[in-house]
């Protein structure tokens, strides 16, 4: 599609190209479903690796104890010892990246739930304990990639199905 203005409404001197994706065109839909399947397959392969890998070793985000041998035991430790709920281990994927993401927030003195910044770690920990912010914010889309449910294939709605 050619258009003589940018998405923000400002005019251009020459036509700009815009590409639209549509399920009406079979090729577009086929490409999108193919990409979606590849993403799902990659997430499932990673999920399977994380379930079976027994070589995981990492220091706890709170007490710095070394937790091994699995990522699941690490997530369970965070919940059982520190009441930090990141989700059920069987529902998580890319756990290493999730832990890094959470650790970066905590090291930057940012609450993982409300995103508020604190002056020191003790104040942050007290805030998270008192406010019940020892969990991730379900409204924060940055966490979506770490949950298996977000990798399901989107089904056609009844209106989209052709009879």
Radius of gyration: 22 Å
Mean pLDDT across the residues is: 86
First-last Cα distance = 30 Å
Q: Uncertain runs with pLDDT below 50, 5 residues or more?
A: 157-163
Strand arrangement across the biggest beta sheet: 1-2
The structure class reads mainly alpha
Strand content: 5-15%
Helicity level, as a percent range?
A: 25-40%
- The general outline is flat
Number of strands: 4
Count up the helices: 4
Main sheet attributes: strand count, strand direction, barrel closure: 2 strands, antiparallel
- Element string (H = helix, E = strand): EEHEEHHH
Descriptive account of the structure:
With 163 residues, the chain is mainly alpha-helical. The protein is 39% helix and 9% strand. The strands form two sheets. It has a two-stranded antiparallel sheet. The protein has a two-stranded antiparallel sheet with strand order 3-4.
Q: Helix and strand layout, with pairings?
A:
Layout: E1 2-5, E2 11-17, H1 26-52, E3 58-59, E4 66-67, H2 71-82, H3 95-107, H4 121-131
Antiparallel strand pairs: 1-2, 3-4
Name the descriptors.
163 residues, mainly alpha, two-stranded antiparallel sheet, two-stranded antiparallel ribbon, 4 helices, disordered C terminus
Summarize this entry quickly.
Helices cover about 40% and strands about 10% of the residues. With about 160 residues, it is mostly helical.
């Amino acid at each position: 599609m050619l258009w003589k203005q940018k998405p923000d409404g400002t005019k251009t001197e020459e036509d700009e190209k815009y590409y639209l994706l549509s399920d009406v065109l079979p090729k577009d839909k086929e490409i999108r479903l193919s990409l979606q399947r590849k993403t799902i397959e990659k997430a499932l392969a990673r999920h399977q690796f994380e379930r079976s890998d027994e070589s995981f070793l990492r220091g706890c985000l709170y007490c710095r104890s070394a937790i091994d041998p699995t990522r699941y035991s690490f997530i369970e430790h965070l919940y059982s010892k520190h009441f930090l709920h990141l989700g059920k281990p069987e529902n998580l994927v890319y756990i290493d990246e999730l832990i890094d993401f959470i650790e970066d927030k905590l090291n930057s003195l940012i609450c993982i739930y409300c995103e508020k910044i604190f002056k020191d770690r003790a104040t942050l920990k007290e805030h998270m304990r008192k406010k019940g912010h020892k969990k991730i914010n379900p409204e924060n889309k940055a966490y979506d990639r770490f949950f298996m449910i977000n990798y399901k294939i989107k089904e056609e709605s009844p209106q989209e199905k052709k009879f």
